């Protein structure tokens, strides 16, 4: 049996005029949320941590690594959110790095590339867990990449991120389970978007 936890990064200030790029850091409130998520990991007894290489995911994963310094960790570009790098080879004029100014045609092209790399990252996670005999691991990622993982896990192989979306709270946890029964692999979505660890912090979102 494998349980794979999907953690969205903690709070980031995306309000204009702040751009949305690979470099957005957590807010002070986001760091508090990340610490809450790290404490929540006590109950899951993680054996491995995977994390997107974008700053906001790195800072969220750092809180977990600080609480569990011996927890093996692999930082992976495969789990990054959509960014300007996903427009490599785009047949047209490139937009600014800020996702707020992208058009639908930019997202359509970039999401195809993001889908491919996220699924490649998922394969690396499964290979790592299988080869090391692991049962519990977590991936710290983003709304977009987590949605790809959820849809892929549910059997969807078409990019529909702009029309079919799981809304995920800051620092939320989702959990996927893989089991083997009579030689057949079965997939279970145990839960999606559990963010009870930040419930008392929600009121502060209106103040940032």
Shape-level CATH architecture: 3-Layer(aba) Sandwich
Q: Determine the fraction of residues in helical runs and give it as a percent range.
A: 25-40%
Number of strands: 6
Radius of gyration: 17 Å
Q: Which residue ranges are poorly predicted, with pLDDT under 50 across at least 5 consecutive positions? A: none
Q: Label the overall shape.
A: globular
Gap between N and C termini, in Å? 41 Å
Question: CATH superfamily name?
Answer: Phosphoglycerate mutase-like
Look up the CATH topology.
Rossmann fold
Largest sheet: 6 strands, mixed
**Overall number of domains:** 1
Order of helices and strands: EHEHEHEHEE
Q: How many helical stretches?
A: 4
**Average pLDDT reading:** 92
Q: Which strand order spans the largest sheet, edge to edge or round the barrel?
A: 3-2-4-1-5-6
- CATH C-level name: Alpha Beta
Q: Which class do the helix and strand fractions yield? A: alpha/beta
Q: Hey, roughly how much beta strand do the residues contain?
A: 15-25%
